[in-house]
Design a protein that fits this description.
Layout: E1 20-23, H1 24-44, E2 54-57, E3 63-66, H2 69-76, H3 81-96, H4 101-121, H5 125-142, E4 149-150, H6 157-169, H7 176-189, E5 202-208, E6 216-223, E7 233-242, H8 262-286, E8 290-293, H9 299-307, E9 311-314, H10 318-328, E10 345-355, E11 358-364, E12 373-379, H11 382-404, E13 407-410, H12 414-428, H13 434-445, H14 447-456, H15 460-472, E14 478-480, E15 488-490, E16 497-499, H16 500-518, E17 522-525
Parallel strand pairs: 5-12, 7-8, 8-9
Antiparallel strand pairs: 1-17, 2-3, 4-13, 6-11, 6-12, 7-10, 10-11, 13-16, 14-15
Helix pairs in contact: 1-3, 1-4, 3-4, 3-16, 4-13, 4-16, 5-12, 5-13, 5-16, 6-7, 6-11, 7-11, 8-9, 12-13, 12-15, 14-15
């Protein structure tokens, strides 16, 4: 007779064997908060111009040495569901503004840490979340009044350079003036009149050697590869772009050839040669002087291209082919046909050059026609160049934000201290339990000058009291001086500006993530399926742009 084994009582009786569930304050809320605090503490030390680097080795054994929070988060592969919510908020910030990811993680972590104390005092998580929402509304109301400068013309090089400096300074402290000007030149040169600025139109090409100050901007596209044939330069070039190999075409079906005489054998391969020559001649008749192919360029094809003085370039990435077509105004052809005048692209100059000892093929577009510009980054190591690329990427995204709204608020922690002061005043006028949460929200904002001071080796409490004293005296732009921690600087005078939109979205995303985590009261985890998990389910293929 089989014995009946009763299942576990309560909630577990409904679930499949092996499923886990956590509920209540101790098991769900505090566990979530402690995971988020740990995560936020990991990234704190990477904040600010003196932030330390993290060394991350991902699943492919690739090494990253950086203090860019977006890269660290992306490569860390967070498993904890609550910490994942913070990651999603910071990724949203990355997509929206391209900068301020660390700000979101640190602020959400600080809000949750403050919430833990309030819940232990007896407030419910819902009270805390409601108070945070009120405080956020007040902060967003105060934020526009803190504006201290504005970019009035996104085509003005000096104004744009000034606005981009701070975004680069937090990653590449010491090189910000040179890099900000470089990025400003690249962005302004391709800023369209009517449509919005597209971040993808700034390309980056990294070449080892020399120093960072040898980096430059090229109008058009640069590929780290040599040309295929003997022709190495063309002025006022006409381009035909193919996504297929430029070679003798093979038939799709298998066939058998029966050869009966010696003449037939001698003429067999000549037909192919004649066909190839006809194809190349057709290009010459269309006026094409440069052929770009997405696949292999065959020896026979190369022979005829050289014979008719046509330059041949091979670009293996479909992504790059699409960008190149955008640069020169060509249309990609899927098979070897004669291009029509509408499908031919125009380029002022295509030539082979050497940067350091690396051969590069440059498609240069002069004047107003250029739609894409490339920043050639030079540096002593690959890791350094990767880090410079991240700084440039942040700056390009900041430029995109500038085109939407040119307002800037003071940086160096001064915006956070002023918001904290005004939110605290608002909290003391609020009746009800929310006032405790509003006070904690204002305390959480003070984490930024504290961390800046910590990372620079200054005394954090002393720094904070100096800043609060200056702001109480009405100095709205007083910020932390990362070169000499004991004195307070005027962020406006020192030209340390943060984009208004970056702060606006960061406040929104961080608070919403913290409130969402607080409102979780149960975690139910299904039993894991057996077998290895495929990596990055649903992730986009980098070639599918």
């Amino acid at each position: 007779m089989a014995l009946h084994v009763p299942k576990a009582p309560g909630f577990a009786s409904m679930l499949k064997d092996g499923a886990r569930h956590y509920s209540g304050l101790e098991e769900a809320v505090f566990r979530n908060i402690s995971a988020c605090k740990e995560f936020s503490n990991t990234l704190k030390t990477a904040y600010g111009p003196q932030g330390r680097n993290k060394m991350v080795i991902n699943h492919l054994e690739k090494l990253f040495v950086t203090n860019d929070a977006a890269t660290i988060i992306k490569e860390l592969e967070i498993e904890h569901p609550a910490a994942k919510l913070m990651v999603l908020a910071s990724q949203m910030q990355e997509q929206e503004m391209g900068d301020g990811t660390n700000w979101v993680i640190m602020f959400a972590g600080a809000l949750l840490e403050a919430a833990e104390d309030l819940i232990k005092m007896g407030l419910t998580p819902t009270d805390v979340a409601d108070g945070y929402q009120l405080a956020l509304n007040k902060a967003l109301e105060v934020l526009p009044a803190l504006q201290c400068w504005e970019v009035t013309d996104p085509k003005n090089l000096d104004q744009v350079t000034k606005a981009l400096r701070t975004a680069i300074m937090s990653k590449q402290y010491g090189n910000e003036d040179f890099l900000a000007r470089l990025v400003a030149q690249a962005c302004i040169s391709i800023l369209p009149e009517k449509t919005t600025f597209n971040v993808d139109n700034i390309r980056i090409c990294k070449i080892l050697g020399s120093g960072i100050h040898k980096s430059e901007v090229v109008q058009g596209m640069v590929f780290r590869r040599t040309v295929e044939g003997a022709v190495t330069a063309k002025e006022k070039a006409k381009l035909a772009v193919y996504s297929c190999p430029f070679d003798i075409t093979t038939t799709e079906t298998k066939g058998t050839v029966l050869i009966q005489t010696a003449d037939e054998l001698a003429n067999f391969s000549r037909g192919e040669e004649n066909k190839m020559e006809e194809d190349v001649k057709a290009l010459v008749d269309a006026g094409v002087t440069v052929v770009v192919a997405g696949g292999k360029i065959g020896d026979l094809a190369l022979h005829y291209l050289n014979k008719y003085n046509i330059m041949a370039v091979r670009v293996t990435s479909k992504w790059d082919l699409r960008r190149l077509c955008k640069t020169v105004g060509a249309i990609i052809l899927p098979k070897l046909t004669q291009p029509t005048p509408e499908e031919i692209g125009l380029c002022d100059r295509v030539f082979l050059d050497e940067v350091g000892d690396v051969p590069v093929t440059i498609f240069r577009q002069e004047g107003e026609e250029s739609r894409i510009s490339t920043i050639i980054i030079r540096g002593s190591t690959d890791n350094l160049m990767d880090d410079i690329e991240r700084a440039v990427d942040d700056a390009v995204n900041t430029f995109k934000g500038l085109c939407r709204d040119g307002r800037c608020v003071p940086g160096a922690g001064s915006t956070e201290v002023e918001l904290s002061r005004q939110v605290e005043q608002y909290g003391s006028q609020c009746p009800g339990l929310e006032q405790y949460a509003i006070k904690k929200f204002s305390e959480a904002l003070k984490i930024f000058p504290k961390v800046l001071a910590d990372n620079c080796g200054a005394a954090d409490q002393e720094t904070l009291s100096n800043l609060l004293a200056a702001h109480t005296d009405g100095k709205k732009n007083a910020g932390f001086n990362c070169e000499d921690g004991n004195c307070v600087i005027d962020a406006k005078e020192k030209e340390i500006f943060d984009l208004y939109l970056t702060k606006f979205w960061a406040l929104k995303y961080a608070t919403s993530a913290a409130c969402q985590i607080l409102r979780v009261d149960q975690i139910i985890m299904a039993k894991k399926a057996g077998g290895p998990k495929p990596r990055g389910m649903g992730a986009q293929d980098p070639d599918d742009d």
